[in-house]
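Worked example 3. Consider a protein that binds FE2/S2 (inorganic) cluster.
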Amino acid sequence: MFVCICRVVTESRIRSAISSGASTVDDIERACGAGGDCGSCRDEIQAMIDGESPVAEGCAGCPRAGQPRGLSRSA
Ligand code: FES
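Given these inputs, the predicted complex is written out as structure tokens:
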């Protein structure tokens, strides 16, 4: 999933930067460019840094609740 459309940066690339020590949105920008253009993705990047993963919360009873987006349901 792309988080930063302007710089074509995926969620996994941002997570990799966070795992490598990036702790601010500016660190992420320096690491991969995300957030360095229009800035509309910076709040989402900050949420990722804060551990507020952009995962599907789901409705009560949803079999995908809590799973990262894009993962298919297990059989
Ligand atoms: S969407 Fe990330 S800088 Fe524009």
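Take a moment to read the result before moving on. The chain has three helices and two strands. Residues 4-7, 34-41 surround FE2/S2 (inorganic) cluster (CB under 6 Å).
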